[in-house]
Amino acid sequence: MYMDELPIYGMVGEYLSEADAEEFSKKSNLPKEQAFLFTHKDFQISYNKDRIIDITLTSGGAVPVREDVDVTFTYSVSWVPTETRFSQRFDKYLDSDFFEQKVHWIAIFNSVLLVVIFCGIVGLLLLRILRKDMQRYRDATEDIELNMLIDDHGWRQLKNDVFRTHPQLPVLCAAVGIGVQLVVIAFLCFAFIGYNGSIYDRRGQLSILMLSTYSGTTMVASAVSGYLFKRHSDPLHTKAWRRVMVYTGLLLPALFIAVHLVLNCIAYVYDQTTAATMASSTVFNLAVIWLLVQCPLTLVGTIVGRLLAKPGKYRHSLTLRPVPRTLLARHPMLLALVAGLVPFLGVLMEVNYIFSSLWSHKFYYVYGFAFVNLVIYVLLTICSAIVATFVLLTHEQWRWGWFSFASGASTALYLFLYAVYYLWYKTEMTGILQISYYFGYVTMMCGLIALASGALSFLSVTAFVQRIYNTKHE
After folding, report:
1. Do 308 and 456 share a domain, yes or no?
2. Does residue 360 belong to any structural domain of this protein?
3. Which stretches of 314-431 are DSSP H helices?
4. How far is it, in rounded angstroms, from Cα 127 to Cα 379?
5. Alpha-carbon distance 335 to 393, whole Å?
6. Of 56, 275, 311, 375, which has fewest CB within 10 angstroms of its CB?
7. Alpha-carbon span 362 to 358, nearest angstrom
8. DSSP letters of 293-346?
9. Residue in 403, 399, 459 with CA at minimum distance from that of residue 224
């Protein structure tokens, strides 16, 4: 409940355990009951001149919940003057002892140290390990006799196969384009918050900000997807760009529609459609925005991306190189899971704070910490994807396109597992309705993280692969 943008927290009722109900019955000489409903609400409203400063809700009048009991609800309101200024009325909701404790600073320091170590590993990989191999590769390419003498093995053997067209390229390009859009949205939101100062004191402002930036940056997703498809596709099969455009415009809305459709069906079964489902007017407004804003921008962005891109002219052999068998410990999917674990561990502490603000009635206001963790996450995702892809290439696995995307997207799997842990150990949610809505929103969050992380890893790995093979585009 809200009043003048201030949240009001109160207990609807209470459910006693078997032992507590037995003890309460003995003390009160009343029949044993476990479920009670509070029928009286006392509102104490503090004000300063013509401004509401604070609202305190006290619940009372416990009545046992039975089928044969008529319940009458009552309330009372008292107005109390206060000297607290209007600009300070949200201070009571900002849990500084929780968000600004020393362990938060220590976690940031550890994450920065992890970034430095990983960037050092990537730098060592590029400057020392690959330097000699790249020089030998270039010399062998220019000198035929030297090429015959050099024992060509590892990643150098893949020079004629590494730039083959990726399978399901339209879907991959659309996913990368949407991921780039999500990354841009994240940085734009932080830029707005840095300029505006705070957004927690106005209900719904964050949702409006994210929706407006998503609609305005639709052209970014379609331009990136169109550009990548023209660069990486076979020149003889370029007509599929229309499918890329459709996937880019529908992939993310389809995720949200599917999740909300399932949640609305569950709410309908539990007769909670008024409180739990999305209003029909909101659905209509979102549909109008998608039809009149996003669809035209998707078309324009795809055309612009194709105009900016030149067809990639990569050399590859006519015969398809067989992919060697690998041990289970070197399986690409296992390697991708390891690559996704590193960025997740780097921001795990901040994930805990964000979950606490979402599900434990806390106002998240430490945007500086969140921005630093975003930068750390981006750098760790890029570095871990590059290292994992190089390990893949050294084992002569040339199908790196979807692997690189999965290396970043696998972080979402760990986020989902952490959400399961958080639900089990740190919340008191019960019932199918509550748990369904929890996992519904977590699923949408993980989907966004997977797309954004996959896009970062794919683009960074693409630049890395082109760099080590010294590709020259015409």
Report:
1. yes
2. yes
3. 332-346, 348-359, 367-394, 401-409, 411-426
4. 18
5. 12
6. 275
7. 7
8. IIHHHHHHHHHHHHHH---------SSPPPPPP--GGG-HHHHHHHHHHHHHHH
9. 459
Among 54, 77, 93, give the residue marking a domain's end.
Answer: 93
pTM, whole model, 2 decimals? 0.82
With tokens 């989907």, the residue in question is: 447
Residues 72, 204 within the same domain: no
Tell whether 425 is covered by a domain: yes
Alpha carbons 431 and 399: distance in angstroms, whole number: 44
Residue 473 lies in a domain: no
**Sign of the C-alpha dihedral, residues 431, 434, 438, 440?**
positive
Max Cα-Cα span within the chain: 101
DSSP type of residue 290: I
Q: Give the domain extent around 21.
A: 2-93
Same domain, 132 and 277: yes
Characterize 431-441 residue by residue with b for buried, 16 or more Cβ atoms within 10 angstroms of its Cβ, and e for exposed: eebeebbbbbb
Please state, in angstroms and rounded to a whole number, the distance separating the CA atoms of residues 453 and 366. Answer: 23
Examine the domain organization and report whether 249 and 379 are in the same domain: yes
CA terminus-to-terminus distance, the chain: 62
pLDDT (tens digit, 9 = 90+) per residue, 434-459? 888 899 999 999 999 999 999 999 99
361 and 256 in a single domain? The answer is yes
The span from the CA of 198 to the CA of 208, in Å, is: 14
Query: Do 86 and 125 share a structural domain?
Result: no
Both structure tokens of 132? 């000699």
In-domain check, residue 474 = no
Instruction: Report how many domains make up the chain.
Output: 2
DSSP code at position 279: P
Query: What is the DSSP track for 105-166?
Result: HHHHHHHHHHHHHHHHHHHHIIIIIHHHHHHHHHHHHH-HHHHHHS---GGGGGGGTTTSPP
Q: For residue range 380-395, list pLDDT tens digits in order.
A: 999 889 888 888 888 7
User: What are 60's two structure tokens?
Assistant: 């009372």
Query: Do 203 and 76 share a domain, yes or no?
Result: no
- Amino acid making up residue 190: F
How many C-beta atoms lie closer than 10 Å to residue 446's C-beta? 20
> What does DSSP say about strands 35-48 and 74-81: parallel, antiparallel, or unpaired?
parallel
Domain end position, chosen among 32, 60, 93: 93
Helix axes 432-468, 169-196, angle to 10 degrees: 110
Burial classification of residue 397, based on how many CB atoms lie within 10 Å of its CB (0-12 exposed, 13-18 middle, 19 or more buried): buried
Q: What is the pLDDT of residue 300?
A: 92
What is the CB neighbour count within 10 angstroms for residue 233? 22
- Pick out the chain residues at pLDDT < 50: 144, 146-151, 471-474
φ and ψ of 114, to 5 deg:
-65, -40
